[in-house]
Amino acid sequence: MTDSSPKLLEIVPLLEAIVGERNILLHPESYLYDETPKPVRPEAERNVVVVRPASTEEVSRILRLANERGIPVFVRGGGTGLSGGAIPTRPGIVMSMERMSRIVEIDEQNLVAVCEAGVTLRQLLEAVEKVPGLSFPPHPGDESAQIGGLVANNAGGARAVKYGVMRNYVLGLEVVLPSGDVLSLGGKVIKNVTGYDLMHLIIGSEGTLCVITKAILRLIPEPGATYTLVIPFDTTAEAIRTVPEILRSGVVPLALEYMDIEAVRAGERVTGKKWPYSGGKAHLMIIVDGGTEDELMHKSEVIERVARRHGALDVLVGVGRREQRDILEIRSLIYEGLKEETIEVLDVSVPIGSIAEFVERCQDEAERLGIKVLHFGHAGDGNVHQQVLRWGFEGDEWVESYSKFKEFAFGLARELGGYITAEHGIGMVKKEDMARTMPETALTLMRAIKRVFDPNNILNPGKVIDP
């Protein structure tokens, strides 16, 4: 803590009695920020105490104490978010879930995994891979992300086009309310219509309603091997207009990604690896999965026929594991390749049939404003990522052009029937944008829900919506 806040200093001994002295940190530098780009991220409040509970009971006692004293609590998972959701913005408690990292069981009979909130995606995948025939399909980017955070943000990722988002895999949750009460929702069942669906209300609530301590996650049969296709085009329109026809062809890819060639170059720079094709303005990266080589070949041939009808310059198929891994790594690290030059990464969702119009009109607007914007993302599910760069600007000259571009992109997304964020969430970065683009009736209901769950506004205050 950087100053002697009486309220916080007073509770340090009480917190130590709950979690032990070694699990209280008063110099929290590594717990202050997430992956939100520096130009738009909120300033972190350094007058905080970091608490690392190891059980649901400890979480309950911490929240009860904080609620009684009116002390804000900011829950932190892996710190991989891009909307400032985990950044403490008021004096209070940062609750790190890192010690709650136990995989309780992999239940082969019911096809579920039960794990604590601090389990990382990497830990879960490794545990599931040890069980023959089962898999956990969602893969929302960084494998250091924690399960609690993935659920709280309803994380998506490239595989959503075929296998859905985190919401589709959550069967049950254990959560702790701000009052300290522990609530178990759902379970090892597929169907449940017993009253209002509180569990799905909590999924995607970004730590503003309760603290997730445990999750029951659905597993599915292992889909088999994969091929990775790289398909370059001369124009954005040709590439993106290929997407709906691929989805209508009967082939549902594991991933269907779109990238500007400049986005590809950024991924190449940070990885030191080469993309399979150096030409073309716009590229599709498509992953197909299947149980046999014949099935994989058939799916690849169907996609190739569609792509060539739309002007594909070539169709390159990666078969070997290393070759496919290199392609995926280049795609996955586009953001890292330009991280220091990035103002923000927008992530609107629009109907699949409107992606081409959205990208083309945004490219025209960016050119008019003189600001550089790279486009890439999950074309198969309508999630377009826009990496807005500071290229060509000195100091803070970019602010006006960036603000105008963001307003245009969000307005266009709504015009086309979409939304301002598909997977990064609102956090603090998009809070004002949500207030401008959502109906007032919806905002009123959200405020009421926040007040019911968290009447003293201690959980992640200032994020998503104010009560």
Category by helix and strand content = alpha+beta
**What is the total domain count?**
4
Q: Helix count, per DSSP? A: 15
Distance between the termini: 28 Å
Radius of gyration: 23 Å
CATH topology name of the largest domain: Uridine Diphospho-n-acetylenolpyruvylglucosamine Reductase, domain 3
Low-confidence stretches: none
**Total strand count, please?**
18
Q: Which architecture name of the largest domain does CATH use?
A: 2-Layer Sandwich
Largest sheet: 7 strands, antiparallel
CATH class of the largest domain: Alpha Beta
- Average pLDDT: 95
Beta-strand share of residues: 15-25%
Strand order of the largest sheet: 15-12-14-13-17-18-16
Shape: globular
Helix content class: 25-40%
Protein described:
The protein is of the alpha+beta class and 467 residues long. Helix content is 35%, strand content 21%. The protein folds into 4 domains: 6-96, Uridine Diphospho-n-acetylenolpyruvylglucosamine Reductase, domain 2, CATH 3.30.43; 103-221, Uridine Diphospho-n-acetylenolpyruvylglucosamine Reductase, domain 3 (2-Layer Sandwich); 225-334, Alpha-Beta Plaits (2-Layer Sandwich), CATH 3.30.70; 340-426, Alpha-Beta Plaits. It is built from 15 helices and 18 strands. The protein has a 7-stranded antiparallel beta sheet with strand order 15-12-14-13-17-18-16, sandwiched between helices. The longest helix is centred in the C-terminal third of the chain and has 18 residues, at 398-415. The model has no long low-confidence stretch (mean pLDDT 95).
